[in-house]
UniProtKB/TrEMBL annotation:
Keywords of the record: Membrane, Transmembrane, Transmembrane helix
Keyword Transport in record: no
Name of the protein in its database record: ABC transporter permease
Transmembrane segment boundaries: 54-72, 93-120, 132-153, 160-179, 207-227
Origin species: Actinomadura darangshiensis
């Protein structure tokens, strides 16, 4: 971790325009939860649906995409990253710092609102809300690593990330069992399923496999980002 890089990245990410992007979806989720609670639509099934479909399947990947690509992508696009690369800072430290910032932002703007929405709707009944919070946290870490790696590897990271989150996980996942199982969302849901007895929550992936895949994807994304960053440095020197 590098405190200076982290501070500069936080400042850039929490500027007015990006802050509005980060706040819009969480506020919508909380308004939805309050509205459902006020109208009496707050049973366990509805709470599970809101936390899974809106929190885990929509809010989490989109916020992780904004955070993961935003912490480093713009610096690569405008060339400012070369200023950082000229400093005597190991590339691994730069990547880990950027990833840590992305995880903190994803936690603050996706995991915490999902937790609050669950508390508003059903509290801690059947441990559903804590389970979703923990599942969203581990999923957010994996998403962040993947999207940071994409931002370093491609200028089309946002497009690729949207295709993965919205087409592969959401659209194809609804029709193709194979695509559904090969998704961070399902691996996170497996963690949630293991932590709650609520019947609406079911995963298609066994817990040991899901945990292993989450760890592998997180480590692979981090390694790929660090490796690609070294390549950027060599290319600039040439």
């Amino acid at each position: 971790m590098n405190a200076t890089i982290a501070m500069i990245t936080f400042r850039a990410m929490l500027g007015r325009k990006r802050a509005l992007l980060l706040l819009a979806l969480p506020l919508l989720l909380l308004v939805l939860a309050i509205g459902l609670k006020a109208t009496g639509n707050d049973d366990l099934d509805i709470s599970a649906t809101v936390q899974q479909q809106f929190g885990l399947a929509t809010l989490l990947p989109l916020l992780a995409l904004i955070a993961g690509t935003g912490v480093i992508g713009p610096e690569i696009d405008d060339g400012q990253i070369m200023y950082v690369l000229t400093k005597p800072i190991p590339r691994e430290v730069i990547v880990l710092t950027k990833l840590a910032v992305a995880i903190v932002l994803t936690t603050a703007f996706a995991v915490v609102p999902t937790l609050l929405a669950g508390l508003i709707l059903t509290g801690t009944t059947a441990q559903l809300t804590p389970a979703f919070a923990l599942g969203a946290l581990v999923g957010g870490i994996a998403y962040s690593a993947v999207f940071v790696a994409l931002a370093v590897a491609s200028r089309n990271a946002v497009t690729i990330g949207l295709l993965y989150a919205l087409v592969w996980e959401t659209l194809l996942g609804s029709f193709a069992p194979g695509a559904k199982s090969a998704s961070i969302q399902q691996w996170s849901l497996s963690v949630i399923d293991a932590l709650t007895g609520a019947s609406p929550v079911k995963s298609t992936v066994d817990l040991p496999l899901a945990i292993a895949l989450l760890v592998v994807v997180t480590l692979a994304g981090t390694f790929l980002a660090a490796f690609r960053l070294r390549t950027l440095a060599v290319a600039s020197a040439d």
